[in-house]
Design a protein that fits this description.
148 residues, alpha/beta, Ribosomal Protein L13p, Chain: A, four-stranded parallel sheet, two-stranded antiparallel sheet, 6 helices
Length: 148
């Protein structure tokens, strides 16, 4: 009896493409499902130190929703590296300007903060509307209501 152990060879050829519709989905729950697929935790041969995940295309990011008080209380902070350069922007303003950034940052916050996590984040494509340029990859629709 030998135990199967995945090697790093051939992982890129086995990756699948999924398309997720964010319309009406809460941002946090959408991000957790997408992060699991990017990491590859939905696969039975998942290994923590290999990038086993698949590619994910998120469409209709503009129509995602926030639950509870997050729509009014959530704030993004960044620093300009100048003295007194701490800037804040609330989620409503960010969502109006760049809805795809809100989804990307939510997913990236759930990925590992390593080189492996950055490689996983590169497989995420987010678009504000329903059109995307990845039709040649033949992405499969992924229904998040069945994912539990």
């Amino acid at each position: 009896m030998s135990t199967y152990f995945p090697s790093g060879t051939g992982l890129a050829e086995k990756r699948r493409w999924y398309v997720v519709d964010a319309a009406g989905q809460p941002v946090g729950r959408l991000a957790t499902h997408v992060a699991r697929i990017l990491m590859g935790k939905h696969k039975p041969d998942w290994t923590p130190f290999l990038d086993m995940g698949d590619h994910v295309i998120v469409i209709n990011a503009r129509r995602a929703i926030f639950k509870g008080g997050k729509a009014t209380q959530k704030v993004y902070r960044y620093h300009t590296l100048w003295p007194g350069g701490l800037r804040e922007i609330n989620v409503q303003e960010m969502f109006a300007k760049h809805p795809e950034w809100v989804i990307e940052w939510a997913v990236q916050g759930m990925l590992p903060k390593t080189k492996l996590g950055r490689a996983m984040a590169r497989k995420l494509k987010v678009y504000a509307d329903a059109e995307h340029p990845h039709a040649a990859q033949r992405p499969e629709p992924l229904d998040l209501s069945r994912e539990r």
